[in-house]
UniProtKB/TrEMBL annotation:
EC number annotated for this UniProt entry: 2.7.13.3
Gene Ontology BP term (one): phosphorelay signal transduction system
Keywords, alphabetical: Kinase, Transferase, Two-component regulatory system
Keyword Kinase in annotation: yes
Protein name listed in UniProt: histidine kinase
Pfam families in alphabetical order: cNMP_binding, HATPase_c
Domain Cyclic nucleotide-binding: 14-119
MF terms in GO: protein histidine kinase activity
Family annotation (CDD domains): CAP_ED
Catalysed reactions, semicolon-separated: ATP + protein L-histidine = ADP + protein N-phospho-L-histidine
UniProt-listed SMART domains: cNMP, HATPase_c
Domain Histidine kinase: 294-473
Length: 487
């Protein structure tokens, strides 16, 4: 342990604005110590000391569940940690993060009580403002935090419920119709003139049924006009041959992608050698095609439900550790899926650079960023009569060792006098009750935690929120060379 050097402290950004007397007073109550690599202070313990790095490296971490997650690392002289909130002069203040030294380091050490007295004496007005701001933010977060989370959860739940309801209802409808079709198939099987059919004719009928089931199980993608023309041709063919319910069967065969050539094949087969035999065979095969179409609808609906659940898992990252690597496009797609209920009238342009490498990040947190940016873009474009058709553009590209993500809307734009305030906590232009003004503040904090940057550019009809994130190669995606303002 040694006394501090005024000249050395004067060279640190933290103290450069202090007067000589202030610096001397601070230095008289401080000490310089060299610490080995290892734990410096632990989150939740009483905040007894304030540390300023002179030489070495500090790493901060925060507890999440049963893990300590790195949030910041720096080796620049002057960065600080520990009892940064000593200005509160509260004996029950706790360390908000854990701090460790990655190698032997030399630190300036101040007792929290000493620092608090120094700040109150030398900067009384600033101290009062900081205390008021800290208490105000704490109480506001206590009151608004749960409310905002519930509001956001309610919006996403409503959207997800809407998206799940459509395929679920389709699956229920298809299952009920399928039950009816199977019952009808049993009755129509009895209508077949089985006693009149030779073994070869029965084999021909079974072969036709298998082929039609195979085709109906993978129906062709026809345009509405093509399907209408096909249905017209089939209806005329079936009606001309006296088939019962000809136009109803024509609609089924057209949906399955079966054309007049297939009707000719049925007519020419051994099971339809007599005119009277064609009618029950067509109705039997139409029931087969309808059954396969319903099975396809059931499969498509349940697959859609499964896909939505998978996208929800991707969005919430329930099946991932907090820290990992992710394809930024998967994150963006899963977030857009959560907003599907609001995208009906919105043209979504995905301008993605799919060659981008995986991004080291906290995926669930980045999804929160995309949620806030996309929701703001949608709010800016919708509900304004006379506004052009809304277009939401999500653009990605690589810039050197950074990934750039733009969320762009063609809304009314942000007035110039408000641009500097959009990231301020509690600032919002939405009507009272529609937002607490914390979305962009939270997004900016998350991006900062990733050692990235978030900013806005706006003109009428072209507003962009741009996120730049590092393709980090170090062990911590939040590595930084400058300490955060809250230490």
């Amino acid at each position: 342990m040694s006394t501090c050097d005024l000249a050395e402290l004067r060279g640190l950004f933290l103290f450069e604005a202090l007067t000589d007397d202030q610096l001397a007073r601070l230095c008289a109550d401080a000490r310089i110590e060299t610490f080995p690599a290892g734990r410096l202070c632990r989150e939740g313990d009483p905040a007894k000391h304030f540390y300023v790095l002179l030489d070495g490296e500090i790493a901060l971490s925060k507890r999440s569940g049963d893990r300590d997650i790195d949030i910041w690392r720096a080796s620049e002289p002057g960065v600080y940690c520990g009892a940064w909130s000593a200005f509160l002069r509260d004996p029950d203040v706790r360390y908000e993060n854990s701090a460790s030294l990655t190698r032997p380091s030399r630190l300036l050490v101040l007792d929290a009580e000493t620092l608090g007295e120094f700040l109150a004496a030398e900067f009384p007005m600033a101290t009062h403002l900081l205390v008021g701001h800290s208490h105000g933010r704490f109480h506001a977060h206590q009151i608004l935090g749960p409310h905002d989370r519930l509001v956001q959860l309610g919006k996403l739940t409503a959207g997800l419920t809407h998206e799940l309801n459509n395929p679920a209802a389709a699956a229920v409808r298809a299952a009920n119709a399928l039950r009816t079709q199977i019952a009808g198939m049993r009755h129509r099987r009895a209508e077949l003139p089985a006693h009149e059919l030779s073994p070869a004719a029965m084999a021909s009928l079974v072969e036709l049924q298998d082929r039609i089931a195979e085709i109906a199980g993978k129906p062709k993608a026809l345009t509405p006009v093509e399907k209408s023309d096909l249905e017209e041709a089939l209806g005329q063919w079936l009606e001309g041959r006296g088939v019962t319910d000809a136009w109803e069967h024509a609609a089924t065969f057209a949906e399955a992608g079966l054309d007049v050539d297939w009707m000719e094949r049925i007519s020419a087969s051994r099971c339809c050698e007599s005119a009277a035999g064609l009618d029950p065979v067509v109705r039997w095969l139409a029931t087969t095609a309808e059954t396969e179409l319903l099975l396809t609808e059931l499969t498509d609906s349940t697959t859609r439900i499964s896909t939505l659940i998978e996208q929800t898992k991707q969005y919430s990252q329930l099946d991932r550790a907090p820290l990992g690597v992710a394809d930024v496009h998967d994150l963006l797609d899963s977030t857009l899926a959560m907003f599907a209920h609001r995208l009906g009238e919105v043209t979504v342009v995905r301008d993605f650079d799919r060659s981008l490498p995986a991004l080291p990040c906290y995926p669930a947190e980045l999804n929160q960023v995309w949620t806030n940016l996309i929701e703001n873009a949608l709010d800016a474009m919708t509900g304004h009569p006379g506004h052009p058709s809304p277009v939401l553009t999500v653009h990605t590209r690589r810039e050197l060792d950074m990934v750039r993500v733009e969320v762009r809307d063609n809304g009314r734009g942000i007035p110039g006098d408000l641009m500097e305030r959009v990231f301020d906590p509690f600032f919002t232009t939405k009507p009272f009750g529609n937002g607490a003004g914390l979305g962009l503040d939270i997004a900016a904090r998350i991006v900062d935690r990733h050692n990235g940057s978030l900013w806005a550019e706006s003109n009428r009809g072209d507003t962009r929120f741009i996120t730049s994130l590092p393709l980090a190669t170090s062990g911590s995606v939040a590595a930084s060379q400058e300490g955060p303002s809250d230490g």
